[in-house]
Design goal:
Blueprint (H helix, E strand, L loop, with lengths): L1 H17 L5 H21 L5 H20 L1 H21 L5 H4 L1 H7 L1 H21 L4 H32 L11 H23 L5 H22 L16 H29 L9 H18 L5 H20 L1 H7 L3 H34 L7 H23 L3 H25 L10
Helix pairs in contact: 2-3, 3-4, 4-8, 6-7, 7-8, 7-10, 8-9, 9-10, 9-11, 10-11, 11-14, 11-15, 11-17, 12-13, 15-16, 15-17, 16-17
Length: 437
């Protein structure tokens, strides 16, 4: 089996390399991005410092390179750019047009586009799970995931412009609060999944990965309604820095790939225990899930407690439901070696970007607060996340850790990462208070 996996991997890599020859289209795409960067510098350059200008030009090169490596990404960039451009044109410099123009109000304003993103991620999740019965639904799941990514990026681009329409002080890259970074998390996780789906020619993993994306989308909708989180607000002093444009995206590439690896680890365990017949281990899971879901109705929990109880209760019940049908699900999943390989690659990429993000965060802290590290709760938990995945990779590369232990560890890593991402904002406070719920 291992030799077969290596042969398939070599075939995939050779096929990809054969498609990576630089063509006139690639050069044209690079020129297009550079022209757009030049126009942006000409029109908005007076609002940028030298670092932001360098980031803009560098980003054009990076996007061209990514589009060359993965052709669908180039198509996505063009589609998102054209659609966001249409929305900006319809605004015509007046934010009030979002209430009077049909396309802005129902389709192209940032909130409308992000709402469509959430709905399509939910529909994609349903389609992927139906795909275990009908393969046609798998293709629908992939199409809906691409549609959700398209809508989400359009929403972020339009939101960027909407901030400038409110005032120059409001105009900032949309990665500054929990609402915006939750959108970014969904998009990055989905994009990496779509890449692995294509590379390994498997769609059944979409059922698992889309669960964590949809759970984030559900939180996003609740957060929007409960806290009016979609409102664009000015940046506090610490966030008014070009470091944010580098640190936050790199950080969330790490978060997204760690979440993807965890769900692949879950799929690995389902595949591994697909032949197990015992139902007894599911009884405590069902009891815990039912207790959490019923908690708000029995004890009439107030504030956010009821939401979180139902949120985690439904999650636990979904896990129990998946494990109940593990035999049928396992038969449709890729080989264990493939799942292990995807898990390793995702964590490797995430660890690299998270390391870069942590270093950038230290420089940002020195610039904003005068010191590289203060053991703020967010910084402390970032260090815990880094050490967790450093140990995972060390044991895999040095000791050959594979399979069950790696999969369980990836799931534990998701819990640790989730607390660093969100739990710190709920239960702790510190210098990163701008992310509080």
């Amino acid at each position: 089996m291992s030799n077969t996996l290596n042969d398939n991997r070599d075939e995939i890599i050779w096929t990809e390399k054969s498609k990576r020859k630089v063509s006139l289209v690639d050069y044209a795409f690079l020129c297009l991005l550079l022209v757009l960067a030049g126009i942006s510098l000409y029109v908005y350059g007076h609002n940028m410092d030298i670092y932001e200008k360098c980031i803009l030009v560098f980003s054009a090169g990076v996007m061209a390179w990514l589009g060359w490596l993965w052709k669908p990404l180039r198509t996505l960039m063009i589609a998102c750019g054209l659609t966001a451009g249409l929305a900006i044109f319809l605004y015509d410099g007046n934010l009030n047009n979002a209430q009077t123009n049909f396309f802005l109000k129902y389709l192209l304003s940032s909130q409308s586009a992000i709402l469509f993103m959430c709905v399509m991620f939910f529909m994609a999740t349903l389609s992927y799970w139906v795909g275990f019965v009908s393969r046609t639904a798998l293709w629908l799941g992939t199409a809906l995931t691409w549609g959700a990514v398209y809508a989400g990026f359009v929403g972020l681009l339009v939101r960027w412009r909407e901030g400038h329409l409110i005032s120059a002080e409001m105009g900032h890259i949309p990665v500054s609060n929990l609402y915006e970074v939750f959108v970014l998390f969904c998009l990055i996780t989905a994009l990496f999944y779509l890449y692995y789906e294509k590379r390994y020619r498997t769609q059944s993993l979409g059922a698992f990965v889309s669960l964590v994306i949809t759970s984030a989308a559900v939180f996003l909708l609740w957060y929007t309604v409960e806290r009016n989180a979609a409102t664009i607000t000015p940046l506090n002093n610490a966030l008014q820095s070009w470091w944010m444009k580098l640190h936050v995206p790199a950080n969330f590439i790490g978060y997204g790939t760690f979440a993807l690896a965890a769900m692949v680890g879950f799929a690995y365990l389902v595949k591994q225990h697909g032949e197990t017949k015992s139902w007894k281990p599911l009884i405590p899971v069902l009891v815990v899930g039912a207790a959490l879901v019923s908690e708000p109705f029995i004890f009439r929990a107030k504030d956010n407690v009821g939401f979180w109880a139902v949120y985690f209760g439904i999650s636990v019940l979904l896990v129990a439901l998946i494990l109940s049908f593990r035999h049928r699900i396992a038969a449709k999943l890729p080989a264990l070696e493939v799942l292990d390989d995807i898990m390793y690659r995702a964590i490797s990429i995430g660890f690299a970007f998270f390391t870069v993000a942590t270093i950038l965060g230290a420089f940002w802290a020195a610039d904003a607060w005068g010191t590289y590290w203060q053991w703020d709760p967010k910084e402390t938990w970032a260090a815990i996340v880094w050490l967790n995945y450093a140990a995972w990779l060390h044991l895999r590369l040095m000791k050959g850790m594979r399979g069950t232990v790696a999969a369980y560890w990836a799931l534990v890593g998701l819990v640790v990462t989730s607390f660093a991402f969100l739990g710190v904002n709920i239960f702790l406070s510190g210098l990163h208070s701008y992310g509080e719920l």
